[in-house]
Amino acid sequence: MKFLDEFRNPQIACQLLQEIxxxxxxxxxxxxxxxGQTHSILRNGIDQLLPPHISLVHGPGCxxxxxxxxxxxxxxxxASRPDVIFTSFGDxxxxxxxxxxxxxxxxEGFDVRTVYSxxxxxxxxxxxxxxxVVFFAVGFETTAPxxxxxxxQAARKKISNFSILVSHVTVPPAMEALLSSPENxxxxxxxxxxxxxxxxxWEYEPIAEKFRIPIxxxxxxxxxxxxxxxxxxxxxxAGEYGVKNQYNRTVNREGNESAxxxxxxxxxxxxxxxxxxxxxxxxxxxxxxEYAQFDAARRFSVDHIQTRESPNCISGLVLQGxxxxxxxxxxxxxxxxxxxxxxxxxxxxxACAAYYQHQHIKVTTE
Amino acid sequence: xxxxxxxxxxxxFEKHGLKTGIIDxxxxxxEACLVYVPEIELGQYTVVHAGFAISVIREDEAREKLxxxxxxxxxxxxxxxxxxxxxxxxxxxxx
Lengths: 366, 95
Ligand code: SF4
What we know:
The complex is a heterodimer.
Chain A: H1 10-23, E1 28-34, H2 35-43, H3 46-49, E2 54-61, H4 63-66, H5 69-79, E3 84-88, H6 102-107, E4 111-114, H7 118-127, E5 132-139, H8 144-156, E6 162-169, H9 171-180, E7 188-192, H10 193-199, H11 205-211, E8 214-218, H12 222-237, E9 242-243, H13 257-266, E10 267-274, E11 278-287, H14 296-299, H15 315-319, H16 343-346, H17 351-357, H18 361-365
Parallel strand pairs in A: 1-2, 1-7, 3-4, 3-5, 5-6, 7-8, 8-9
Antiparallel strand pairs in A: 6-11, 10-11
Helix pairs in contact in A: 1-12, 2-17, 7-8, 8-13
Chain B: E1 6-15, E2 18-25, E3 28-33, E4 45-49, E5 52-56, H1 59-78
Antiparallel strand pairs in B: 1-2, 1-4, 2-3, 4-5
The structure holds iron/sulfur cluster.
Iron/sulfur cluster binds at residues 312-315, 318, 325, 328, 330-331, 335, 341-342, 344-345, 352 of chain A.
């Protein structure tokens, strides 16, 4: 078993589609939180195969998309220092800041590098003691354990020329914020399987209870997504709410407790500004005061940088599931993956990029 | 950064005091830190995020589920259910 082809089996997908069609009787709106799932849905045409009763809206679960502009500008300010090696996951390099992106900083001759793991950045700090090595610590709960471990190792091994620029966000407060909005349309959530692999789903139980909605931790393959949708539709049609796990080969209620322990040891909760959405209370992580010396924003005094968003991009509404990318007047015209105007078009996980890549473009260009 | 393809652990070693492994993704191999899956053994599958393995995939759960689906398909086929994808001219790409 490779845990891949088995969950892309068209016959099983077909069986699930038929079960969904046989179960649904009313109109329902379901949000998938995670950008990875958005891509899987569009790549496999799942949105078009579902009965018309079911609308899928796409959530804010793309770390590149929700990282606020001021963090990008802070990253650019730090990366533009001759004493710094600035490291980041590849997809952050093309996100437009107020004036430029990190790739442009690199082309100006500064040392900006893509790394695959925060431990690679720590390794660079070990090898380049005369330089400051900074890692751009963005992402959801999925990247937090790795970033926490890098800081913990730096502290233990006394690697003082290493620091991280932290812009961590967490999913449950965003789910709650979206449900609390007067404009909310979401009636059920496909929760991101890999966030749950780390955090479990115990945090979702009070949300499902409070808003009386079904929440289903779901995997990323087409069969996973279809089964997740089926579980939600079964609960909605029966008037039930609560958390049911689709992704039990990878996720359990408690999650990865050792990862949660290290996250708690290094990080604490903080309010975070989500690009396009605004500030959500206690929706992210920052370094605990014991680890403040590893905070790049303080070390390089860039924490005062504030910026304003371009008014043309509606990615905030896209990230909240209120508009589809195709409803943006510049989608596929002025805004394309080659010339992105907003973060949801830059990132490989962004909803606008997903629509652009997977045929929906014809809707607006015709 | 949220690509999450299951990979098989093909080597385990220590690096700077941390349990580390080589993970094989259908032929492409990459290193991953294994500190958060201390129980993992050679040959098991894991999900890796940003260089860290975050869970050991449970083969028993996967098998059980696939077997249940296969049963449902067999029963449906016995009852004459047609497994062509609904409302579409061409079969969808499920790969
Ligand atoms: S198409 Fe471009 S401008 Fe429009 S919402 Fe998406 S990212 Fe923003």
